[in-house]
Amino acid sequence: MKNYYIIDFDSTFTQVEALDELARISLEGDPEQEKVYQEIERYTNLAMEGKISFRESLAGRIALLKANKNHLDKLISHLKKKVSKSFDRNREFLKSNSDTAWIVSGGFKEFITPVVSPYGIKTENIYANTFLFDDKGNIIGYDADNPLSDEGGKVKLLRELNIQGRLFGIGDGYSDFQLKESGLIEKFFAFTENISRQSVTDRADHVTPSFDEFLYVNDLPRAISYPKNRILCLIVGDVPEISSHILKRDGFSIRVKDTFEDKYTKDVGMLLLGPGVDISDEQLERAAKLKTIGYLGDVKGHMSRSICSQKGIVVFDDKKNKAHNAEFIPRRMAEFINNGDTDQSRNFPNLLLPKKIKGHRLLHIHKNVPGIMAQLNNVYAENEINILAQFLMTRGDIGYAVTDIDTNYDKGLLKQLRQIDHTIKFRILYK
Fold first, then answer.
1. Who contacts 105 (Cβ-Cβ below 8 Å, separation ≥6)?
2. What CA–CA distance (Å, rounded) separates 213 from 227?
3. How far apart are CA 352 and CA 316, in angstroms?
4. What is the torsion angle, in degrees rounded to the nearest 10, for the CA atoms of residue 376, residue 378, residue 384 and residue 390?
5. Mean pLDDT, to the nearest integer, of 386-398?
6. Mean pLDDT across the stretch 122-136?
7. Residue 351 in contact with residue 400, Cβ under 8 Å?
8. I want to staple 95 with a disulfide (CB 3.0 to 4.6 A). Which of 108, 120, 236, 241 is the partner?
9. What is the average per-residue pLDDT within 59-68?
10. Which fold has domain 228-339?
11. Whether domain 3-217 has CATH 3.50.50.60
């Protein structure tokens, strides 16, 4: 049976609620603008939380809008810049699944269609409401016969369509959860990249902080190899807010703590530390998933760089106490996770890599002993791998080999690379 992906639009495919944004545009300059906008936003939230009917919310918002077709043109331009980052990253998945990736929304086709069409969503697979206009182009209402204008509209629509396949619902609101409640979809994924509503997440089969996460848990083709929301970034000590903001905006799962608590040791993937924070040898030895550490100060004397090197942990620090390093260091950490860059690391070979990954990028950290590259390339040769680019740097006892390869390979290759003698850490990137 085919998989069908039933995707919400507002606060899911896009970062915002379109009618709320239309209100900002149509009411610009109105002395009552903020008051009216807050009332429109109130209607939106009440419906999304299931506290009033969708039709009541829709009618209330339309009456307050004072919008026309010219305002819609501005709205469309705005929404195209507000597509959720994880959907934008995975444009190729949507295009490859254009027959089964559907938009089902209580929003309006007039602004949804031009925003989602560039992503390969077919017009016939966009289900939404439609506006009614007067002869001057003013919005005066909506088609009340459309099932999506009514309470439980998504359920009514899918019952009418009677789709034969496995349906997965992705959305942020109560109307999306109703699909799961109705039994019409196999699983409901509460999408929280833009907003998280507890009344929805508590009832979801899975909370998905990004579309990357949805694709990952369902083992579907995706733009990045591993969802960043699954990488725990622990921030400890006196760290400026801008530092955590940079990493959070990049999609990492952030925890801010006064101390490095033992309960995080086995799961932490990134550590950003304030001045004077000490990390014990035992903690470093136990941190099996730790990939990079950023230190806002001179790391010397506060942790063992040799243990970090032995375990393949890349360290970036701030030994000159420069003000801009509160931003620079978290960005270097993110660039290592995202691209494999070790430029300006304190303990690793400094490698600055091309930003665009052709195919898949394989990162192999190993002890700097003779014959490693021969072993690596023998594995590639035995598997008839097409190498697109290869980079190697060494520093002391550490070797760092980065290989971009064509995406057509047997997954057994990865196991072979991990088993090469003197391998410290191996990771795969693609985006």
1. 8, 9, 10, 112, 127, 128, 129, 148
2. 6
3. 14
4. 40
5. 95
6. 96
7. yes
8. 120
9. 89
10. Rossmann fold (3.40.50)
11. no
